[in-house]
Amino acid sequence: MARLAVNVDHVATVRQARGIDEPDPVLAAGLAELAGAEGIICHLREDRRHIQDRDLALLRQTVKTKLNLEMAAVEEMIEIAMKTGPDMVTLVPEKREELTTEGGLDVVSNKDHYKRTVDRLKPEGILVSFFVDADPQQIRAVHECGGDIVEIHTGHYADAKNETEANRLFDRIRLGVESAQENGLRISAGHGLNYVNVKPFKVLPQIEEYSIGHSIVARAILVGFERAVREMLELVKNF
Ligand code: PXP
Predict the structure, then answer these.
(1) Which residue minimizes the CA distance to atom 7 of ligand 1?
(2) Closest Cα to residue 119, out of 148, 92, 93?
(3) Whether the CB of 192 sits within 6 Å of ligand 1
(4) Domains of the chain (ranges plus CATH)?
(5) Residue 95: its pLDDT value, please?
(6) CA distances from residue 88 to 68, 141, 148, 158 in whole angstroms, order as listed
(7) Which residues does the chain have with pLDDT short of 50?
(8) pLDDT at 214
(9) CB of residue 214 inside a 6 A radius of ligand 1
(10) Which residues are catalytic?
């Protein structure tokens, strides 16, 4: 049975849009755990556009399942990870101007750097996951760097314009999964998965964990909206 790890970044996105203190991604993480999520993920970006250092510190204190810190493999973040001690980190590429993580890591061309990063994090007891495209060369490089887990990037599949393209990209993910297995890596998957496009993954039981954020936050806003309006109406209707 696969696990669900919930990414709470976009709860923070809504908060940051107002620059106040709600909604709190730390509370959302607690609710996700109560609902059965087996992991909480946050991405501390260099520009702090959603998750803040305070969120990470509080999540470390409150998450009872497994805290996964997504981060770029840069000095600032490596030091924060070593100080905070998440259960695992997921190394992702990060560009300042991107709306979200756009592609997988190029581990093949930066093997020495990533190996050094793994060598610093693993002695702290932090598992290291690499977010890569379903490319056997990249996946082999993750193994060569000493990574524990490969998170296969499902964003291209999620963005497919039609069924034929989606099927082709799903087949690539399937090959990526096989390649991760051959390299003895644990496997997760994520990015752009929603309540519809996640369904075909049932045929890939090798994938241990799904990392899902935006679609859950988007659905929460809509399925919770009516109740929120009714509760405000109760307050104001008898004024
Ligand atoms: N995995 C990685 C590496 C990501 O960067 C993200 C987005 O932060 C996700 C999974 C979750 O993607 P989404 O928010 O589209 O579910």
Answers:
(1) 191
(2) 148
(3) yes
(4) 3-237 (3.20.20.70)
(5) 76
(6) 5, 19, 10, 25
(7) none
(8) 98
(9) yes
(10) 43, 70, 191
Residue nearest to atom 6 of ligand 1 (CA): 191
Model pLDDT, residue 12? 98
Q: Cα of 236 to ligand 1 centre, how many Å?
A: 39
8 Å CB contact between 80 and 47: no
Spell out the alpha helix ranges (H) of the chain. 9-18, 25-34, 53-62, 75-84, 111-121, 136-144, 155-158, 163-182, 214-236
Question: CA 203, CA 67: separation in Å to the nearest integer?
Answer: 27
Instruction: Quickly count: other Cβ atoms within 10 Å of residue 8's Cβ.
Output: 30
Distance CA 58, CA 48 (A): 16
pLDDT of residue 25: 98
pLDDT for residue 101: 64
Instruction: Please tell me if the CB atom of residue 138 comes closer than 6 angstroms to any atom of ligand 1.
Output: no
**List of residues 6+ apart from 232 with CB closer than 8 A:** none
Quote the pLDDT of residue 94: 81
9 lines ligand 1 (CB under 6 A): yes
Give DSSP secondary structure letters for 5-66: EEE-HHHHHHHHHHTSS-S-HHHHHHHHHHTT-SEEEEE--TT-SS--HHHHHHHHHH-SS-
Confidence at residue 100, expressed as pLDDT on a 0 to 100 scale: 66
Amino acid (1-letter code) at residue 47: D
Supply the pLDDT for residue 141.
98
**Residue among 123, 118, 172 at smallest CA distance from 142:** 118
